[in-house]
Task: structure prediction
Amino acid sequence: MVGERVFEPALCVVGDHHEVVFGLTTSDRLKRQFARAGISETVSPDEAKMRNGPIILVRSDAVIDQPLIPVLAKRPNLLLVEGESKSARPVAITILGSSAGDAIDLLQGEGPSPDQLKLLVRSPGDLGVAFWKGLRKREVPYAGVVTGQNRTDTEWRMFMGTYKGATDFVTKYIWPRPAYHVTRVLASTSVSPNMVTSVGAAFMVIAFWLFLSGYFLIGLAAAWMMTFLDTVDGKLARTTLTSSKWGDIFDHGIDLIHPPFWYAAWSYGVFAAGTSLSEQTLWVLLVVIIVGYVIQRLMEGIAIKWLGLEIHIWRPIDTLFRQITARRNPNLALLTLFAIFGRPGWGLIAVAAWTLVCLLLHGVQLVQAFHAKQTGEPLKSWMNVPASLK
Result:
């Protein structure tokens, strides 16, 4: 209707209990999350009761996974509870300001029932946002209340919630525990994610020089430290809500560019150290590894541009294959294995052979995906299919 005023929802944090998780109080965390979702107006409980438009009421001691924030902003008369039971503890309510007083009482364990306020009671698993495309994973988001007793468990759940669903086996299974403890410590300091990325970049250069000089085991220690910090910087950014466009470009730019330089330095180091492999053989191995790496990256880009799909999350087998495909960490594992036994040249052979195998398999993936699209089969990630239909 012409002239009708449309009210944007405002956030109202209810209560005075402010637990600290990853260096932020729960109330400050909520304000940052909602501001990132475009809801920057924050009102007090008294102001909420005087408001005509929609209000999102959230307990001050609550933590809410980011995918749930847009749902709260768009669904009126919604009561979000922290468990699967409809009688679980209430965490947040979206309601009109005229009913805010009763809704605030309900959040605090008093007042009318959800039925009396005509609220739709839903748990995180009921809201259809288990698939998070940005992190390439399927996972029921969390919502709950933080207490002194469950704070450590809550932080672990929040930390693991920042992980990508499709990644390599080192990042997925080896780094989480140590990265969690380092992230937890750094979150309460003034260290920023970009600082961590910068330190990682320094280790990247150190590893390059050590490989070039033939100090393979020490160089691998520096390289693994770089990959570890590559995990920490992203987790620190997400858990502290300090991620930025520049930080994303800085981090991913380094990730994309540095592996070929490491392989080149390793190849030169093998040659300089003296080896049974001829110079020509080393050149062939290096070309296979670098060209294979570039082609695989191009294949991923082609899938995203022309198929509209991240190829590693198309089918379960593709996600499983991502754990071991010829990318930096799996290749480092091969180089480490052979370097330990004093055969760095054989490590280069192993990486080249595995790159060719993965290149072939990625080619098959891409052909199958284009064929599926041509036959009219909808290209959709298996993670975005309801569990009941799998």
About this structure: The chain has two domains: 10-126, 162-389. The mean pLDDT is 91. The first helix runs from residue 26 to 36. Residues 106 and 287 are 66 Å apart (CA to CA).
